[in-house]
Specification:
Blueprint: H1 3-6, H2 9-22, H3 28-43, E1 50-56, E2 71-77, H4 78-82, E3 97-98, E4 113-114, E5 117-119, E6 124-131, E7 134-142, E8 146-147, E9 151-156, E10 162-167, E11 173-176
Parallel strand pairs: 6-11
Antiparallel strand pairs: 1-2, 3-4, 5-8, 6-7, 7-9, 9-10, 10-11
Helix pairs in contact: 2-3
Amino acid sequence: MKWPERLPRVFVRMIFWFANNRFPYLPRLTGAAFAALVMSSCLGSTAMATGTAPVPTVTIYPGDSITSQVLRDQRFTDRFMALGGYFHDYDRLVGKVARRTLIRGKPIPISSVRHPFAVRNGQVVSLQYKSGPLLIVTKAISLKSAAAGEYIQTRNIDTGRTIAGLVQADGSVLVMGK
């Protein structure tokens, strides 16, 4: 397929006009050559700069943990690397859990992984209330799964009341007083 067939005719005419009117002292052939050069740079070239990003070596299913053994580096163009929304280094990816299926050889979107759950739905957790020097500890049932640093609802086993708290890395839930 020739380059004029890949782009709208108006765009091609605009480039020819620019090449001939902005540089009238150059021969007409040079204007056409300039237009061809611009068009080839718009369509991409074979000598583009590249960067690397981690991709899975196998298909990773939702709930699977991501380790360095299932990742490898793959080269991508700088244009792709400039896009946001994809992981570009191993450090931020290893140890996370897949939210959806990650296809082998495809870049990994940031929204497709999450931190591992510290608390599971229905799990009995230690509910801690802190207010100054006062510390009250009781048992509660988690009403949803959550990672460390997320707020969740829990139900106190003794009273049956629903209490919101912040999940800690050790799996306990912290309720802050005013």
